[in-house]
Amino acid sequence: MERLAWGGLGLAHADDGRLLLLESPLALFPGETVEAEVHWKARHGEGRILRWIGKDGRRAPADCPVAGRCGGCELWEAGSCAPELKRQMVADLFHRQLGEVAWNWHPAPPEARRHRIQLHWDGAALGYHQRNSHVLVPVSACPAAAAPLSEALPRLQDALSGGALPARPQRWELATGTPAGEVTATDERGRTWRLAPDGWSRDEAPIVQQLPGGTLRHGPGAFFQVSPAWASRAFGSLLETWEVRGATLYDLYGGVGFFSALLGRRFAERVLVESGEAAVGWARLNLEALGLPAQCHAADVADWVPEALGHSDDLILLDPPRAGLPPDLCRKLQGAGAGAMVLVGCDGAAFCRDLKRLEPAWKLKALSALDLFPLTHHVECVALLAR
Fold first, then answer.
1. Helix (H, G, I), strand (E, B) or coil at 175
2. pLDDT by residue (tens digit) across 105-162?
3. What pTM was computed for the model?
4. What integer pLDDT is reported at residue 5 of this predicted model?
């Protein structure tokens, strides 16, 4: 295995020079020798690693009993080398997609854990799916999750098995606020139960996130940062370093107000646009409680954005879904009047594609990658652009 490519894939070459991309259930170190099952295509091969023949001496025992079978984490056995292996993946992506650009890497602190996990109940067992499969891997604890979530897993299993919660096979989300404490369980229909010492009880109260930018609330089952405290620190430090401030903040794909709250009074005015009406309702309440007046619109961002958005002292901040920006929105942003833009992306390939689509109107000024998803290949990419 020669090096790590984006997505945590091992990159190698066959004897005839053809490229090999290998999926691994555990961390891969450059230089390791593996046995893989390969499916050949016209010009390259794709496959999955079956076993290690020659292991790197830096490998460390996994702290998870189902590492290698569970589809949730791919970087077990990386040990203290995980941040560097992940940095290599990002470096490979940026080099291939953007050329020789300067960028900064922000590794996750050891205490970063997930405050939301999605599990599957098949009618008999609770767990995660194997990667690229619907085969269930039962779990009774999850070391990647915040302690209250991990400790709640047996309680959820017992309630499902005993009929105290809806027992039909479906997906469940366990979530906790910040700091981690009370645990909620939300089913596919959006019904929520809160865990108490005597069991689960129906409760639609919001989840509370006490963060450096202020306290935010949102509905159970709603999208929010996976590791909220670390995400707030990482984004806050980065945007402070970039001296992001101005007249009006256009917070597009603004959710429940995470970035508007984080940037606080660095802007005189805020305009938040989000397609989810429930999220917009929470954004209004959150920003009002923080004393940050804002116009909050429930609308599709691509439809809402006008041909010329903002003035020279305004900032456009975009945090789109994993698929990235629609082509029509990129076209509209070419003519925006704002002087600066921050683009956030949780899929590195889509993020790089969007940066190139925004050229030539927007020039890359600074670039960073934040490890907001420990033990996986996923990162959050962030770019500062200027007209």
1. strand
2. 999 999 999 999 999 999 999 999 998 888 999 999 999 999 999 999 999 999 999 9
3. 0.94
4. 87
Residue range 227-386 in CATH 3.40.190.10: no
Contacts of 106-111 spanning 24+ positions with Cβ under 8 A: 106/234, 106/237, 106/238, 106/368, 106/369, 106/370, 106/371, 107/83, 107/371, 108/83, 108/227, 108/230, 108/371, 108/372, 108/374, 109/230
| CA pair distance 248, 310, nearest whole angstrom | 8
Task: List average pLDDT for each run of 10 residues in the chain, which is 387 residues long.
Answer: 86 90 92 93 91 94 92 90 94 94 96 96 95 91 97 97 96 97 96 96 96 94 94 97 98 98 97 97 97 97 96 98 96 97 96 96 98 94 97
- The rounded distance, in Å, linking the Cα atoms of 192 and 173 is 9
Domain at 3-100, CATH class: mainly beta
CB 310 within 8 A of CB 341: no
In which residue ranges of the chain is CATH 2.40.50.140 found?
3-100
CA–CA–CA angle 200, 192, 378 (5° rounding) = 110
The predicted pLDDT at position 72 comes to: 84
Q: What is the DSSP string of 211-255?
A: ETTEEEEE-TT----SSHHHHHHHHHHHHHHTT--EEEEEEET-T
In this predicted structure, what is the pLDDT of residue 42? 86
Residue 362 in tokens: 């927007």
Q: How far, in Å, CA of 72 to CA of 314, rounded?
A: 39
CA distance 277 to 154: 34
Distance from C-alpha of 43 to C-alpha of 205, rounded to nearest angstrom = 54
**Angle CA(273)–CA(374)–CA(118) in degrees, nearest 5?**
65
Strand-pairing partners, residue 384, are: 342, 366
The pLDDT of residue 221 is: 87
Q: How many helices (H) and strands (E) does the chain have?
A: 8, 22
Query: How many residues would you count in the chain?
Result: 387
Question: Is 309:316 a contact under the CB 8 Å cutoff?
Answer: yes
3-state secondary structure of 127: strand
Numbered ranges of CATH 3.40.50.150 in the chain: 227-386
Q: How many CB atoms neighbour CB 324 within 10 A? A: 22
